[in-house]
Amino acid sequence: MIPSKDKFIQELDSLLVPHEDKEDVLEEYEGHIHHLKEETGDVENDEWTVLIHEKIGTPEEIAAIWNQEWSVTPSRTQWLFVSANIFLFVGGSLLTILYNVFSWEWLQGFWLKLTDIPAIIIAVYIVFWILLGYEIGKEFGSKGKSLLVKTLLISLIPNLVLMNLILFHLIPHEWFDPLLNQSFILICIGFTILLLPISWAGYKWGRRASV
Known about the structure:
Layout: H1 2-15, H2 22-40, H3 45-55, H4 59-70, H5 74-101, H6 105-115, H7 118-140, H8 144-167, H9 182-209
Helix pairs in contact: 1-2, 1-3, 1-4, 5-7, 5-8, 7-8, 7-9, 8-9
């Protein structure tokens, strides 16, 4: 088994482009091969090569995946999610303003339907943050920890600004009826606090999916 493992790691090492996470990736796959050995027991060297390729992949396949992911810059991913969050924020703000300024019948009906499903709105937003963590974990691995926190903090700025404007009555509460009640406010505050662990769970999931 050892020659097959060494050959696999050497081939993978030669195919991976230079990157600060390269050694971590090699160690991870070496560990996966070790776990595969524990699960299957002793087999012939040639059989091991076939088994490793079937269960883990060939060095060429793995290197192609990692080289592609490493070509994605952290700043591009960060601003992609920041922009998406700003889009949601601006879209929601524009919808609120239009609803309170204009008496369009279709908009009034849409607003009423939207405010009847606060749980779905929160669920969609949670999925957004899980996806954020997942993509960062999958693309950047261990390097993505600080990127995740930085992206989260930047993305939360408009949310926190809006929350304070509402809490200090700088924006009329009537604009958000019937959403704006005590229970909904507490739920929003609670989920805002939980966004980091929620994103972190997505990040860990992405790390596992990248292997």
